[in-house]
Amino acid sequence: MRPFFVDTLEQVLPRMNMTEQNTRGLAGVVAAETGLSFIDGAEGRLWYRGFDVHALAKHASYLESVYLLWYDALPAAIELSAFEGTLARQRALPPAVLDALRCLPADAAPMAALRTAVSALGQVDPEADDISHEADLRKAGRLVAQLPTIVATFDRFRRDLDLVDPDPELDHAANFLYMLSGTRPSETAARALDTSWLLYLEHGLNASTFTTRVVASTLADMHSAITAGISALKGPLHGGANEKAMEMLLEIGTAGSVPSFVDTALEQKQKIMGFGHRVYRTEDPRATHLRRMAEELSLEAGDSRWYDVSRRLEVEMFERKGLHCNVDFYCATVYYSLGLAIDLFTPLFAVGRTAGWAAHVMEQHMHNKLIRPRAEYTGELDRPWVPIDRR
Ligand code: CMC
User: Fold this and answer.
1) Ligand 1 neighbourhood includes 235 CB (under 6 angstroms)
2) 276 lines ligand 1 (CB under 6 A)
3) 324: which DSSP letter?
4) What's the mean pLDDT in 82-89?
5) What is the reported pLDDT for 196?
6) Hey, which of 261, 275, 310, 345 would you mutate to test ligand 1's pocket, going by the most ligand atoms within 8 Å of its Cβ?
7) CA-CA distance, 291 to 287, in Å (whole number)?
8) 52 catalytically annotated
9) Which end of the chain, N or C, is less packed with Cβ atoms under 10 Å?
10) The whole model's pTM is what?
11) Distances, alpha carbon 36 to alpha carbons 191, 355, 360, in Å
12) Is the C-beta atom of 239 inside 6 A of ligand 1?
């Protein structure tokens, strides 16, 4: 007689209401409801709260778009200025977080430093474990205000430079560039960074946003969710791609070297960073703006080298693989033209995306259902137990 606990996988699966079908990488799976953004991958369109990202990139600032995302309405002038003022007053870091950053090795990856500092902020936030909507909004505001300070502070510590206090008179992007370099940036530079943050702000259930929603769905707090989001963003298939794209452009060196670089990379089945997308089947609408900004910045600097290499690679990739570039590709050229260190590119993606992650945490907390999918089991069942002295 068969022992009662021995079952075949075929017998167990139907009882567990599981199918043997599995979607690799959850491609095409709808895993949450959101009112925050919508992507039309076939047409290459993106809306934040129903507003076309093209219109926002043309007319709005980053913080105006954050307000839109969090409050589901475009702010009136007085509301925007109150919102900007509240955030500007919260830019300084608590002493414990400054100490934590000071203790990190100078060769630590800035993305890892950011992850550590956001986690440390959660240790000292007076409302850390309050997940009411009001507290979530306040914590989201503090995080958006303080993340640029973390990036600038870590960078100055590692370069052994004195810290620069935030200037409440400067807007969000200009203040970051000022804290990083110690000099007031040009309007063009501040505007370019601000628009890049607007374009990075929100993008549906990408890997990092999904991560933050999973964490929030356990009713864990905002800082835990954002720390997890930063961790997910770090990888080269996601936010880490903007750094890898720039390293690749530097390796290619000249527009004339693009074809042979592509030959070798494709022959070796390497991914070309900054190309391809899980959702877009045509041009990523964010790339349209970053390409234009990259061109403008290179014309202004009188040096179009990196724009030319990027453009040639874009044409080559489309002709050979039918692949379009994504948001991270021209962002690399834009950030490089702004004189930013390459290992700050992904932290700056995180700076822009934090407000989007926070919006998802709030949405999840307001309509919570634990996110807990199942895995398709591919192992054996009921393997015979062997006592340790007989293995
Ligand atoms: N270079 C060369 N081939 C590529 C690339 C690329 N960048 N992207 C996709 N392909 C090919 C891939 O080799 C595969 O070909 P085949 O079917 O012959 O094996 C096919 O296209 C499908 O690729 P996939 O990796 O299975 O597609 P996915 O939807 O799982 O991956 C992706 C999407 C973004 C991870 C991928 O395109 C990729 O690795 N790109 C490079 C990294 C990158 O730029 N990441 C940023 C993503 S967008 C913004 C962000 O999240 O930060």
Assistant:
1) no
2) yes
3) P
4) 98
5) 98
6) 275
7) 6
8) no
9) N
10) 0.94
11) 24, 11, 8
12) yes
289 is catalytic: no
In the predicted model, what is the mean pLDDT of residues 231-255? 98
* Distance separating alpha carbons of residues 334 and 307, to the nearest angstrom: 9
To which residue do tokens 């709030």 refer? 362
pLDDT at 23: 83
Burial 4-24 (b: 16+ CB within 10 A, else e): eeeeeeeeeeeeeeeeeeeee
The response to whether residue 323 sits with its C-beta less than 6 Å from ligand 1 reads yes
**Which residue's CA lies nearest to atom 22 of ligand 1?**
276
CA dist., res. 298 & res. 331, Å (int) = 13
Concerning whether 203 is annotated as a catalytic residue, the answer is: no
Mind listing the pLDDT tens digit for each residue in 285-314? Answer: 999 999 999 999 999 889 999 999 999 999
Share of the chain above pLDDT 70, in %: 94
Ligand 1 and 238: CB distance under 6 A: yes
Q: Which region among 5-14, 41-50, 90-99, 213-222 has the lowest average model confidence (pLDDT)?
A: 5-14
